Amino acid sequence: MKDKDFGLLLTRKSYSESSLILTFYTEKQGLNTFIFKGAKKKNKAIFTLGIYELTYFKRPESDMGIINSMENAVPLLDYYSNPQKIILGFFIADILNQTLKVEDADPSLFHFLKNQIISLEATDDCFNFPLYFLAGLTKELGYSPLFEMDHPVSFDIQRGEFLDYNSGNSSSVEGEVVTLLSQLFQEETLIAFSKETTRKALHTLLLYLKMHAPNFHIEKSMEVIRETLYS
User: Fold this and answer.
1) Predicted pLDDT at 214
2) Alpha-carbon torsion angle 180, 186, 191, 197, nearest 10
3) pLDDT in tens, 178-205
4) Where along the chain do the CATH 1.20.1440.120 domains lie?
5) Mean pLDDT across 7-16
6) Radius of gyration of the chain (CA)
7) What's phi and psi for 6, nearest 5 deg?
């Protein structure tokens, strides 16, 4: 039976001389993998994190569907042509491939991701975008840190808690990094922070996810980000 869905492209692999295997996070089905026969012959540009409308066929007993057609659902002209945004796209896709393991649909998560990609297309602030994205994704996935008070003194990464005192834990951070992260998670308007503080905050947030999200490892992508956007 043919069906339609919207999907965010996470990975693509060659299947044959002319076909591709594509993995999407879809609105109605969650994580799904498809064969797109003849895709290489169609001269169709297929981009990681592209937002596509899919028409496909999938048997109930099959793990993979077969794509009949896929069309761009949202134009992302700047994202596809801006080198910094392309790098961020691969960074985000790597994070999603690490964290999206459940096949069940989650419309709230799908629309969050879709809106983040649209925001990436529109933003002029590629430097701070990874922080906004990671904080939002952390909340969507249910890994938000706890708050002991609105204006914390430290953030204990291992405990996953903002505190009004320094815990003395080796995984605890203090200073402007704590202020920046607490504002992100409390959805306050960010004050201006130095690039070094932003770098440290991103490192802290990634370390937090590595400790609390199962099988979270993105060292290679983070190295690319450091060498380009955060050099």
Assistant:
1) 85
2) 10
3) 999 999 998 877 778 899 999 999 999 9
4) 77-228
5) 93
6) 19
7) -105, 140
CATH architecture of the domain covering 77-228: Up-down Bundle (1.20)
Between residues 149 and 112, the one the model is more confident about: 112
Name the segment(s) of the chain with CATH classification 2.40.50.140.
2-72
> Token pair of 117, please?
């990609």
DSSP 11-77: EEEE-SSS-EEEEEEETTTEEEEEEETTGGGTT----TT-EEEEEEE--TT-SEEEEEEEEESS--H
| Mean pLDDT calculated for residue range 93-100 | 90
Q: What is the CATH number of domain 2-72?
A: 2.40.50.140
Report the C-alpha gap between 222 and 20 in whole angstroms.
27
